[in-house]
Write a structure and sequence with these properties.
9 strands; globular; binds magnesium ion; 7-stranded mixed β-sheet; binds thiamine diphosphate; single chain; two-stranded antiparallel sheet
Length: 386
């Protein structure tokens, strides 16, 4: 088993306090005790008695225990594949073949760590434009993804009609309807409300950036979700920039997670480059939501290594030295170092993993580039109800 290490989790901690209008107490922090191995979820309904420790009692309810050696290696493979695919898509943009790219480089641990904690294909992910690793981790193939960037027939999210990575893949629980910032957060809350009304134990995760967290839609969604104790996890990928606007220019508090208390839900600030911390935090939030304990807000602090999109020039507003410093936290380097330290991988095995990723991405590129463009006679298919 992979050693559990929560040292990098920085908890937003406040004492439990009485909520005057509610019978039960709302936790305002996750417990600091290490969570249990996977599959230890108790079957009875969670009734929160205000004891934070109780959250960890429920551990994670997924079958993807990230702490098994095999799963951790698999997640590393996915991380390498995602980085390789992201680099390729960026190159396709520079070759004039892909219209626009919002790179996920630096966000991989946040995205893969969080989806490792859900029931894939059952839970729903309302993602945003930078969530390449969520798409891959939930089961989209590199060919399907590249087809979206080069607008080719067979792209499953929107039939290549939309902005790349946008559309929906209901079988995989992927919804990405618009890149108008934060508009999907109330939609995710609505989906969570539908699950609750139907009596399902489905959890919805809403992914969004630090900039989106300052949008009105985000506040309304969180407030509503907390009032109705909806099964939703708000997952903020805080890369400290909204295009060129640094965090200090779009919020007056230090942490996005600290806002959770104002809505009446747990908030947790974590190291979003440390996949184990991300997995543990998300597992606890997902367990809480699934058992009727309501929403949580997770703030994953991570890095954006490239400009906002392929249309942006970050040299105007960001020092190269800052980016170099950020690269010391590269989630791929951190996880590889841990795997080597734990004797789970050697340098030559890492080379094999990288070669394999390149081969998969080469094949996917070729398949996507050789595919036809969509038939224009079907141009308005799916635009309305058909
Ligand atoms: C409502 C709205 N306002 C402005 C924009 C333009 N816009 C696109 S991305 C972006 C920044 C979002 O930053 P953040 O939420 O931190 O996500 P990141 O790109 O950093 O991952 C903005 C302002 C938009 N798409 N929608
Ligand atoms: Mg940002």
């Amino acid at each position: 088993m992979y050693p559990r290490d929560r040292k990098s989790n920085k908890h937003w901690s406040k004492e439990t306090k009485e909520q005057p209008l509610r019978e039960e107490k709302i936790p305002t922090s996750f417990s600091k005790t290490p969570s249990r191995p996977a599959n230890t979820l108790k079957q009875e309904t969670l009734i929160f008695d205000g004891n934070f420790e109780q959250m960890s009692e429920y551990g994670t309810d997924t079958e993807n225990n990230i702490f098994s050696d095999e799963n951790l290696l698999d997640v590393y493979r996915q991380m390498v594949l995602c980085r390789t695919l992201d680099q390729r898509i960026w190159a396709l943009n520079r070759q004039g073949k892909a219209a626009i790219v919002a790179s996920s480089q630096g966000h991989e641990a946040g995205q893969l760590g969080s989806i490792s904690a859900i029931r894939k294909g059952y839970d729903q992910c309302y993602i945003y434009y930078r969530d390449l690793a969520v798409l891959l981790g939930l089961g989209m193939t590199p060919t399907e993804i590249i087809k979206g960037f080069v607008a080719k027939e067979g792209e499953p999210l929107s039939g290549a009609r939309q902005f790349p990575t946008h559309g929906a893949y209901p079988e995989l629980g992927i919804i990405n309807l618009s890149n108008v910032i934060a508009t999907h957060i109330p939609q995710a809350v609505g989906a969570a409300m539908a699950s609750k009304m139907k009596g399902e134990d489905r959890v919805t995760i809403a992914y969004f950036g630090d900039g989106a967290s300052s949008a009105g839609d985000c506040h309304e969604a969180m407030n509503f979700a907390a009032i109705h104790k909806l099964p939703v996890v708000f997952f903020c990928e805080n890369n400290k920039y909204a295009i060129s606007v640094p965090l200090s220019k779009q919020m007056a508090v230090d942490s996005v997670a600290s806002r959770a208390e104002g809505y009446g839900m747990p908030g947790l600030e974590i190291d979003g480059c440390d996949i184990v911390s991300v997995y543990e935090a998300t597992s606890e939030a997902v367990s809480l939501a699934r058992k009727g304990g309501g929403p949580s807000l997770i703030e994953a602090n991570l890095e954006r290594y490239l400009p906002h999109t392929s249309d942006d020039d970050d040299s105007i507003y960001r020092d190269a030295a800052e980016i170099e410093e950020a690269k010391k936290r590269d989630p791929l380097i951190l996880l590889k170092a841990q795997l080597i330290k734990d004797n789970l991988i050697s340098q030559s095995e890492d080379d094999i993993i990288r070669d394999e990723a390149r081969r998969l991405v080469d094949e996917a590129t070729e398949a996507a580039e050789n595919a036809d463009y969509p038939d224009t006679s079907e141009f308005d298919k799916h635009v309305y109800s058909d």
